[in-house]
Amino acid sequence: MEIAAIINKQYKIIQITNTILIFMKTRNLFLSTLACASLLACSKDDDSSIQEVLSGDNYVAVNIVAPAGGTRALGGVDQGTAAESAVNSAIFFFFDSNGNGCANPNYIPTFTMTGNEEGSLSEAVLVLENPSAVPSSMVAIMNPTEKIIGLTASVSLSALKNQVDAYYTTGTTNFLMSNSVYVGANNTTVSSTAISPSQICSTKDEAKNSAVTIPVERLVAKVNANLGSVSGKETYMVNGEETILSINLIGWKATNLNPKSYLIKNVEGISVETWWNDVTNLRSYWANSSATDSYKTFTYSEIAGNKAPQYCLENTTSQPTKLIVAAQVTDQAGNPVDLMEWRGEKYTSDDMKTRLAGFMKNYYTRTNTEVEGEYKYVSLSSNYITFTISASENTAETSYKVEAALTENTPQLYTFYGDVATTVTIKDANDALSSLGEIKHWNNGATYYYVDIQHRGKDSEGADIMGTYGVIRNHSYDLTINSVKGLGTPVPDENVVIVPTKPTDEETYIAAKIEVLSWRVVSQTVDLE
Length: 529
Prior knowledge:
Layout: H1 3-10, E1 20-25, H2 33-41, H3 50-55, E2 57-65, E3 90-95, E4 106-108, E5 112-113, E6 122-129, E7 137-142, H4 146-149, H5 157-161, E8 164-165, E9 177-179, E10 182-183, E11 189-190, E12 193-194, H6 204-208, E13 212-218, E14 220-226, E15 231-238, E16 241-255, E17 261-262, E18 277-278, E19 283-284, H7 300-303, E20 310-313, E21 322-330, E22 339-342, E23 345-348, H8 349-359, E24 364-371, E25 374-379, E26 385-389, E27 401-406, E28 413-417, E29 420-424, H9 426-434, E30 439-442, E31 446-452, E32 476-485, E33 489-490, E34 509-516, E35 522-528
Parallel strand pairs: 1-6, 2-13, 14-32, 32-35
Antiparallel strand pairs: 1-2, 3-4, 3-7, 5-6, 7-12, 8-17, 9-13, 10-11, 14-20, 15-16, 16-21, 18-19, 21-31, 22-23, 22-30, 24-25, 24-28, 26-27, 27-30, 28-29, 31-33, 32-34, 34-35
């Protein structure tokens, strides 16, 4: 029988305002004399016998709270929306003093939301079923996945901390939450909430007076960007003429996303510095990320048009999460410009084809007209030139480049040795086109800018410090775009996944102001270049 069914069928469901009562079935609990004495201390009758305590019903009240505010980075605190703080279900894990599981995990399928302020999140009653030892600590998981719900009493605290999974994919509510983690006394990581024997009581009222408070955090980070009315306008030489081009920002995404996360925040091995560890507020502002060799990126078409907040898992790896901004290059009338750059000069795509055809002046096509026994040959038409992505794999080094090639309907080609026409294969002609060098292509004006999302600034000497780049769970990153410079990184195909990069010879950037909120906010003002 499922745990939810056991709860609903065999036990009373007791609603307690701002608390969760854990109903303890202790008939199979073997307590030490000291532990039993502690239980007696909070039982209704001081002269109750140990046997009466073991055979009766005992309770532990639990108050689930959002962690208190506090700021150690750029920004302040934002409690988030009710949807972002919604709790619909929960599961509790219990551990003995050695970190071993000592009772069946208790799953509550329905929670009542009380608000998104710092304080109690929900109200319900849990059942501590068949404990094998006195619980020493516990972990709360809000909105658990089926995999977490399926864990048994054998799971240890260490095993729970090492659970790594894709804990977020899409959606804007019902975020997974787990115990807030920080480093406490003696440099010891606190990743579960302690339970004292005195908090295990024989009546509900006594339990409510000694509730266990468990701070929880969302596993996701939140990223938001304000594009405002920022636009870049500069004069460029296009087809040999001065041309004013504008940059219109049309959407954004957080990209280079870590696909997996630790269930419980991992701070092991991080040197304890005052800026990231906040004992007072029972939380921390930095973490280790799970290793990955596959980050989530997006196509231009997925980025363009998106202006809604985005949620993602924390990422503090050497490949940080970035803000990528889609933009479009337009002329003065606001029309997209199909722009190319070759050998340092900029052209429209039609003019680019004409110039390339001119460099292929030794290649001819033959007409069907025969004059006095000889065919007529004409220079290669620019209509037979097209552009393709320069590599079979989309890498950072090639994603903005195209190669010139001949179209599929190109007729037989010829070249002349003296007066003799000799056939040329399409492959040989394409090799000749390829040898002319790389071509950048702003297809229909499509371009992008990106910046690594900054969690902290630099030290007093201007050097990067730990935590400079990365996104951390339960933080909100607000980026305001200040300005743009340059034409950005070209996008030849809007349906090809973008691996964020900047052309090595391009002075193009994004500058943004980031504010990190708790949801702790990190604000960043960005100039796009």
